Amino acid sequence: MKKIPILPFALILFAFTSFTQQEKSISEIQYPYKFKYEGNPLVSHISSTDPDVNVWDEVVWMYCSQDHPKQPGDKGVYDHMDGYHAFSSTDLIHWTDHGEVIHSRDLGWGIPGWMWAPAAAQRDGKYYLYYPHRGDSTKNWPIGVAVADNPAGPFKDTGKPIEGIIGMDPKVFIDDDGTAYLYCNRAQIAKLKPNMIEIAETPRKIDYAPQFVLDNPILRLGEGPYMHKYNGLYYYSYSMPKNPEHQAFYSVGKSPYGPFEWKGAFAPAVPNAQDHHSIVEIKGEWYYFYHINTPEDELKALGWDGSRRIACFERLYYNEDGTIKVIEHTSE
User: Fold this and answer.
1) Is 320 a catalytic residue?
2) Which one is catalytic: 50, 97, 100, 157?
3) 137, 186, 249, 299 — which has fewest CB within 10 A?
4) Assessment of whether the complete model's pTM goes beyond 0.85
5) In whole angstroms, what is the distance from residue 51 CA to residue 48 CA?
6) Are 182 and 194 in contact (CB under 8 A)?
């Protein structure tokens, strides 16, 4: 059995910079809104949940979903997640919030709200935003697609979800040969057609871990599957929010389909939130983006009932054998 490294408790404690930006009313913010990174959290003037990060033409683009306060009659804290924001930076210090790029009211299908973790991709000068969105009152999660000519949007929905696949937390990975693949939290993968809005095959199940992991409710895939490539190998990673010590796990394989060799944990648990990460190379260095929850005292000061997750990032390092060194959450 793979031994999972145990982190000191201190590593899961966060030192936060001033939340002065939070005090600004959302209605007062003028977009594009420029801000400077001065230590984690990266974004705190608004909710910046489920960061999906991409690098296009040497510009870092981050797409985030939005938490909103609970309302009477809600069954959970995420009923009203809605509206995605795009953020960009050329140096990881100076950032621009380009504002909302699409909202459920812009769609011709589904019900209001219920727009959870998104993913983005770029091909041939077009930009694609993928999102799970409740089509009706059932628990099914169709995956919608919107297209834009600019990474800052606005994005226009294609009018219907992708046929043949459902699941939360879509992730699109484009391989070196230009082939695009769509992943979701059902541990499935499907190749995308060149048009990027249809799948080219029946979704396949991913062999990402041995049976003892699949049978363990705090080790197996929970949400947020992610794919990246390093030194010719494919890294399939995911989050398991139920794990009290670690939330990010990964496997390594020689194909985007797998099979993968499970390697264990690489990041600590996030208090009162989920890991939900992105892993990207930026100017020759590797980074790990994730979200945390706004501290309880700040939520009370804001009069916020529910979750208000906000994006952070860290450096990511590999060992000589290609395994990932355990991430340390920091305030810098």
Assistant:
1) no
2) 50
3) 137
4) yes
5) 7
6) no
